[in-house]
Amino acid sequence: MIILSGGTGTPKLLVGLKRVFEEEEEEELNIIVNTAEDVWISGNLVCPDIDSVIYALAGVIDEQKWWGIRDDGFVTHTALKKLNHDEPMMLGDRDRATHIIRSELLRQGKRLTEATALLARSFGIAAKINILPMTDEPGAVSTRIHTPEGERHFQDFWVSKKGEPEVSDVSFDGIEDVKPSEEVMNVLNSESEEVVIIGPSNPITSIGPILSLEGVREQLKRKRVVAISPIVGNEPVSGPAGKFMQAKGFEVSPYGVFKCYEDFLDVLIIDTEDEFPADKEVNVLKTDIMIRNDEDSEKLASFLESELIAIPKIINHKISQISTRKSKDQENRK
Predict the structure, then answer these.
(1) Phi, psi for 61 (deg, rounded to 5)
(2) pLDDT, tens only, 313-328
(3) What CA–CA distance (Å, rounded) separates 55 from 107?
(4) Distance (Å, whole) CA 256 – CA 170
């Protein structure tokens, strides 16, 4: 199984997916993770989304924030501040150790994918769970948030400015100059990996950079793609997804999420209480998508597991409907 992930929403789901699929020895979880929010701080590469995935799967994530390590200290950050060295993010001490090891591995010539795999194993994550950075070019892509005050890096907008400024646009600097990692393309090209799950992460800044890489959207058109909406009603479950969707011209709703993925999406999972236009060429499933705790995560993961069995039939029905509609259109033209 392939999963596209950013931070917060999808790591919450991964906790349940790990539990549901851990007994299936042959099933691999290939998690392709956004790196467009990565930033160098105090000489070390910080990969927020990759680290959230690692920490969530390792069971050490701070569940109050859904980033960083639970009960971490900030001795080093405080000491640096006393030495007049201000960091743009408040890094915990154990969290910082992750960044130091990653950066040392990169300096030794390891690719980001290799460094991530070594970190994952060090945190006790099983070898059949592959955490794949979207590209092996560290810090080469930068998510830029356009505001009335000027253009800002995502971390500056979200951490320093607390996501408060109005947003007029979102862009990914450097995206045209990088390629997906070899491992990402191998997984997407694999005939044995038919299903792709897009987790309930921000469709613009978490999933958008992955989709913007050369060849990714084309490969997804050949897969069975299931997306879980990160929007309930007209509000994001968490984070600034609403502002970003509006800035890119999408309505803040499950339908807006569909529009972000419409060229390749087969199934959209939305909340039980949400509505969706009936005439759209996507299959919509409803369940409780709110993840408040590990039990909710496992419940949603179990729902996904059960529905994945039915998805080939659903999609075949969808293809049949589209073919019938096209035939009728051709007859009407005659």
Answers:
(1) -65, 150
(2) 445 444 444 444 434 4
(3) 23
(4) 16
Provide the terminal-to-terminal Cα distance of the chain, rounded to the nearest Å: 44
Distance, C-alpha 190 to centroid of its chain: 20
Q: pLDDT band at 192, cuts 50/70/90? A: confident
The token pair at 53 is: 């995935």
Which is nearest to 227 in space by CA: 248, 212, 206?
A: 206
Q: Which domain holds residue 30?
A: 2-329
Q: Rounded to 5, what percent of the chain is helix, strand, coil?
A: 40, 20, 40
Looking only at the bridges linking them, the beta strands covering 129-133 and 29-33 are parallel
Judge contact between 200 and 226, C-beta under 8 A: no
Q: Cα–Cα distance between 310 and 320 in angstroms, integer?
A: 16
Average pLDDT over residues 71-89: 95
Give the C-alpha separation, 19 to 44, whole Å.
32
Phi then psi dihedrals of residue 128, to 5 deg: -80, 0
Q: What are phi and psi of 10, to 5 degrees?
A: -70, -40
User: Both tokens of residue 237?
Assistant: 């479950």
What is the pTM for the complete model shown?
Answer: 0.90
Residues 6 or more apart whose Cβ sits within 8 Å of residue 182: 113, 136
How far, CA to CA in Å, does 312 sit from each of 185, 255, 307? 23, 22, 10
In angstroms, rounded to a whole number, what is the distance separating the alpha carbons of residues 270 and 4?
Answer: 17
Least confident of 157-161, 272-276, 316-320: 316-320
DSSP element (H, E) containing 318: helix 294-333
Residue 202 has pLDDT above 50, yes or no: yes
Q: Does the pLDDT of residue 23 top 80, yes or no? A: no
| Domain-located, residue 334 | no
DSSP three-state, residue 26: coil
CATH of the domain at 118: 3.40.50.10680
DSSP secondary structure code for residue 229 in this structure: -
**Structural domain count, the chain:** 1
| 3-state SS assignment for residue 265 | coil
